[in-house]
Amino acid sequence: PAHAEPKDTYVIATDTTYAPFEFTDSSGEYVGIDIDLMTAIAEDQGFEVEFQPLGFDAAVQAVSSGQADGIIAGMSITDERQEVFDFSEPYFTGGIQLGVLESSDVQSYEDLAGQKVAVKTGTQGQTFAQDHAEEYGFEISSYQETTDMVEAVKSGQAVGYFEDYPVLAYGIQQGSGFRLVGEPELGGDYGMAVKKGQNPELIQMFDEGLANLKESGEYDEILDRYIGDAT
Ligand code: GLN
After folding, report:
1. Ligand 1 test: best mutation among 52, 56, 149, most atoms within 8 Å of CB?
2. Which CB contacts under 8 angstroms, 24+ apart, belong to 37-41?
3. Which end of the chain is more exposed for a tag (fewer CB within 10 A), N or C?
4. Which atom of ligand 1 is the closest one to the Cα of 122?
């Protein structure tokens, strides 16, 4: 079919600051596991990528509305999303955890009663918080960016934030001053996604490229570049 003819360039929406998956490094370069992986796969499969760092929620919407061809943004493959997106094979495993400041009194979800927690709009962390707010008696404040959640906690507007543990763990390793509470929840393999039924060849090329990168060792090299110390 004509629509499956590969394009020269694919517009890929992504998050803004979501280290180690996408972020601006000290030399001003936009890097990360998602960025390097997508770039390497594009090279392997012979297409170009134009990244659009829009923020998670905006990236999801850009793909839904056809303004971007695909999204790679530490995006978890969920049943709900599979109704509107087609996903690649999983390339990483996430899961939600609570991050609090090292100095915080919070040791478990029970300690959240009557407190505010920060979440990022449209994420699994938000879903997890919504599903458990009543049970543990906490309130939810939603933000657009991970950096906004971090600031909210640092400034005392929230006692902690629900975020993917690889992101929390990377921050802690970089000296964020946070610590983890509880165990990772919701599992959540990450996949690259396209709008359901659109750009099927992009998913196919991603899966083929990912398999090639795993075979050649480049996949491990990319992970090591960012989380070598943590694994
Ligand atoms: N993995 C989470 C989700 O898919 C968070 C993604 C993100 O914030 N970039 O909802």
Report:
1. 56
2. 37/72, 37/91, 37/210, 37/213, 37/219, 37/222, 38/12, 38/72, 38/192, 38/206, 40/209, 40/213, 40/218, 40/222, 41/205, 41/206, 41/209, 41/210, 41/213
3. N
4. 10
